[in-house]
């Protein structure tokens, strides 16, 4: 396990969900080496899919940027030592209105 306490940088989750995310990350780090970021991410994502329904995404690493759309109340970004973990439930963008779509097509042509 990676030594260090989890530090939450940004979240809009309920405290119980936040604690679930931190507990799962600690458990994942018991099972996987810190260099196995994809396995850690998969472990956390699958557990959240089971507990809170499908659509969760998880990104794990030491150096990444992100810009995501997420469901309200379903976002957390935290660090454990040098390892950063982003967990969120994806959200589809609102439907594009037909007039706006036509305007975008005209500009692109």
List keywords for this structure.
109 residues; alpha+beta; four-stranded antiparallel sheet; globular; microtubule; dynein; Dynein_light_chain_typ-1/2; DLC_sf
Instruction: Tally the helices.
Output: 3
What structural category do the secondary elements indicate?
alpha+beta
- Sheet with the most strands, sense and barrel status: 4 strands, antiparallel
Mean pLDDT: 86
User: Poorly predicted ranges (pLDDT <50, ≥5 residues)?
Assistant: none
Distance between the termini: 54 Å
- How do the SSEs run, as a string of H and E? EHHEEEH
Helix content: 40-55%
Q: Measured on Cα atoms, how large is the radius of gyration? A: 17 Å
**Beta-strand level of the residues, as a percent range?**
25-35%
Got a strand count? Answer: 4
Strand order, biggest sheet?
1-3-4-2
3D shape: globular
Protein name: Dynein light chain
Keywords: Cytoplasm, Cytoskeleton, Dynein, Microtubule, Motor protein
Subcellular location: Cytoplasm, Cytoskeleton
Family: Belongs to the dynein light chain family.
């Amino acid at each position: 396990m990676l030594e260090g306490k989890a530090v939450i940088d940004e979240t809009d989750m309920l405290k119980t969900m936040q604690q679930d995310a931190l507990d799962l990350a600690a458990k994942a780090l018991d099972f996987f080496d810190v260099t196995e970021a994809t396995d850690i991410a998969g472990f956390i994502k699958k557990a959240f899919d089971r507990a809170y329904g499908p659509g969760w995404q998880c990104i794990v690493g030491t150096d990444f940027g992100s810009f995501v759309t997420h469901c309200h109340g379903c976002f957390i970004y935290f660090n454990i030592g040098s390892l950063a973990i982003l967990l969120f439930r994806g959200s589809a963008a609102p439907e594009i209105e037909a007039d706006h779509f036509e305007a975008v097509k005209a500009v692109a042509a």
